[in-house]
């Protein structure tokens, strides 16, 4: 397979999804976005299922690259950087459209084994990265040693997932959720959080 | 309109949704579930949009009845009862199927003004009920007076929303999420939470 063309098709799938949503998406839309024929899409990906399996893998690689390429000299700064990576609108329009599509894909998971398997990897990657940072923070004494990293990471993944869903369904700004989650992390994880801000 | 028949159709819509999901649902499926003709469904609800507007209103009434009919002699017990109402599997199969459908409806919200408006009401009702309980708990001295009810309620709605989404996409038990959220509430809201459990 010509990898470059295959990747171009996945990038066109991303743009076509942002524009049309998952439910309404056709191979014709992807072909139009890639400036190719439907036949050539089918040549590279013999079924829509196969295309989506590869597409989710492509997204997963982008996602893990994003959540591991975080800045920070300390675990606290790394956590802030990670929350910014997952809860911020850098490029408002594509981010919001894509989060909308991602929620659609999540809602299809119960009906689609491939989606479910792939989406579970995103969830696990975010959990692992949060847990790694929290473990490092507790070891460095920057986070309270009563914090249980697995419990805190699990809680944060759940809250971040909820923030994404509510951002889409209620149209609240993602930045507002970022503040809420950051505030939780700052006041409940850090050692010696200021007393007036511990709740 | 014959209210009883109209309600029967909404109940049939609920069952048909649990069985087929939203994306695949047809008026024919609803008619089959209601043991009626397609024409009679159209007689009561002249469009699929109109049917779904009424259906979401019907669900909203059930939801508000569920979250206000909570037990408890104290705000703490009321909060526990509310978390049990929204995060427990009383009747495993229909609950899980329906939560799956609800996630599908949420994912359609950005494409559908009616859905978005109706779903925002569920979000607001849960927020209000949580906030009322937390205000009462702070006033009664049962919850720490440093707790800001609006902030804590907002955080809990986000986490509960995330718990529903992850329950569906990762197939984790809803009870596990209930434990996580209850633990958060117990350790971060209550006055004099045991020191070893405050994180």
TrEMBL record, chains A, B:
The keyword Transcription regulation applies. GO terms for molecular function: DNA-binding transcription factor activity; transcription cis-regulatory region binding. InterPro entries: BetI_C, Homeodomain-like_sf, HTH-type_TetR-like_transc_reg, HTH_TetR, Tet_transcr_reg_TetR-rel_C_sf. SUPFAM superfamilies: Homeodomain-like, Tetracyclin repressor-like, C-terminal domain. The keyword DNA-binding applies. Residues 26-45 bind DNA. It comes from the Archaea. Pfam families: TetR_C_6, TetR_N. Keywords: DNA-binding, Repressor, Transcription, Transcription regulation. Residues 3-63 form the HTH tetR-type domain. This is TetR family transcriptional regulator. It comes from Haloarcula vallismortis ATCC 29715. The lineage of its organism: Archaea, Methanobacteriati, Methanobacteriota, Stenosarchaea group, Halobacteria.
């Amino acid at each position: 397979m010509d990898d470059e063309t295959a990747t171009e098709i996945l990038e066109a799938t991303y743009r076509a999804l942002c524009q049309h949503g998952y439910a309404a998406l056709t191979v014709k839309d992807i072909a139009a976005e890639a400036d190719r024929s439907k036949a050539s899409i089918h040549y590279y990906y013999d079924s829509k299922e196969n295309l989506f399996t590869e597409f989710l893998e492509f997204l997963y690689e982008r996602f893990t690259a994003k959540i591991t390429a975080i800045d920070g000299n300390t675990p606290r700064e790394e956590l802030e950087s990670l929350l910014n990576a997952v809860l911020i609108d850098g490029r408002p329009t594509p981010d919001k459209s894509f989060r909308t599509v991602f929620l659609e894909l999540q809602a299809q998971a119960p009906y689609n084994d491939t989606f479910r398997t792939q989406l579970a990897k995103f969830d696990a990657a975010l959990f692992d990265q949060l847990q790694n940072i929290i473990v490092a923070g507790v070891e460095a004494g920057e986070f309270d040693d009563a914090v249980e990293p697995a419990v805190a990471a699990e809680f944060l993944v759940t809250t971040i997932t909820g923030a994404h869903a509510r951002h889409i369904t209620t149209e609240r700004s993602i930045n507002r959720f970022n503040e809420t989650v950051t505030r939780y992390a700052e006041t409940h994880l850090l050692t010696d959080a200021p007393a007036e801000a511990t709740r």
